[in-house]
Amino acid sequence: MIDQEKIKRIVEEGLQDGSVFVTDIIVKSGNRILIYIDGDQYVTVGDCAFLSKYVESRLNRDQEDFELHVSSAGADQVLKFPRQYPKNIGKKLEVVCTNGEKLIGVLLQAGENGITLAPDTKKRQKTMIAEPVGLTYGEIERAKCIISFK
What is the architecture of the domain spanning 82-145? Predict the structure, then answer.
């Protein structure tokens, strides 16, 4: 089976310019490699294609066959890194804190040390905050954007 650490090293090498970064690497049975990337602004199809070709060029199919998928971190995935928050300012987030508390609010600010959530004036829910709340990144267990199709 292909080593996940090896894939991680190859991906980091391929993403040295810094505008795009890896959020997750998964190697499943049968050498099915899933790589998710994100960007400070956005991720293009070209970013995914470049990284896919880069990784593939550094693996040898004759030694070990594999299936490779490179895609952008989807809107349904959790925010894993502080640098993912700024581009989501103004969006509604669901945040689960390390103390188990669940908060829903609009991302007002995202700084070096943490975020500020503001109440969503459009809709009230049970776990929605009533006033702005500041959280450090260390207090956040997981956070993800809430997608609304209304």
Answer: Roll (2.30)
